[in-house]
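Homework help thread (please don't just give me the answer)

Our assignment gives two proteins as sequence + structure token strings and asks us to describe the second one. The first is just a warm-up. Here they are:
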Amino acid sequence: MKKLQFILFSFALANLVWAQKPTANTLTPEEQKQGWQLLWDGKTTNGFRGVYKEKFPEAGWAIKNGELMKVKSAGGESVAGGDIITINEYDNFELKLEFQITPGANSGIKYFVTERMPKPEGSAIGLEFQILDDELHPDAKLGKNGNRKLGGLYDLIPAPKTKKVNAPGTWNEARIVSKENHVEHWLNGEKLIEYERGSDAFKALVAESKYNKWENFGEASKGHILLQDHGDEVKFRNIKLKVLK
């Protein structure tokens, strides 16, 4: 009898936890009060388009089970589908989303993206929250002092080695906060880096990076948010943004 009662109690507790778990790609009442908005509804391509394009890519991306997936493709960066960007541009904002990589994958979340001409080869240009399998992808060994690893400002500022990372095949939460040129990167509830766009220190980092050929790199007054096509399978969900006043 006690064993049956324990089983029934465990079942009821599991149902309670499940019932309290927020549905993916929706806003909680608290988030609605705080001014959060969904950038992606979990079902359609609304809110995004291909970079340098008028519509969402016809290939290279898929939507399944409430997940926006970059399909793995041969040939590398931006060759099948290409990057996707938000329809709108943002300046002061807080962005949060969940991402899940496959072993050895490379991707990124770019912000203050402007469609500069001439069109660059590969991915569009912008400040980047790096998404990477640090253990298996060779890009982790490039750059300086780990500044091409997960969570860092790509090719500019490395994330701490002590960062908390969930393994490939599980979900991580990225958060980017930008207010009055002060920017922060967060991963799984922990702040990784912060910097000032346009500061002397920032400009010095850019001058020593791969972006030194782009005038005023990272200093646009506003820009799109971009999810990168680097040829690897990566999933996104719960893409939410709050405009900061």
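The one we have to describe:
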Amino acid sequence: MKNNGVFGQTEAADLIFQSQGKRLLAIPEIGGLLTCYDSAIEATQRAMGEAGMGLSCGRCSKDTGSCCFQEVETWYDHRLLLINLLLSGDLPRSREVEGECLFLGERGCRLRARYAFCLNYFCPMLKARFGLDLLKTLLAAVGRELAAGWELEQALDRRLQKHL
């Protein structure tokens, strides 16, 4: 599917979710992979929360601008947006923080499933604050989350190819 901007990708995800969402959620393989991915997301969020990353990133977006800059949302394709719909049933449709990513809210990202850059990027301030050992721990959690997301995307692609 051609990337024609975030709203085109959102529309594509919405159409697939409306036409195939219930069927996809009823497939045991997809349900199991969604559960695994959601658990991996939870583990990453818990590790980042314990490290205080949310507070630091929230402050940064207000004070100096952030890695959640406007246009990051255009990196999201219909598959990752569809996964967000399957996990939570909702996608942000309007910007909450002017001049920043469409998905950034006052308390961080409003998406459950996030793009690899959004998980892997640690600015110089965070790197200095966390140190190497904590960064390794956080990146290990991120790696498990990304692997679980990739497995889910592959399974969704296989299932959707059969029905398109």
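TA reply:
I won't write it for you, but here's a hint about the kind of observation we're looking for: The chain is about 70% helix and 0% strand.
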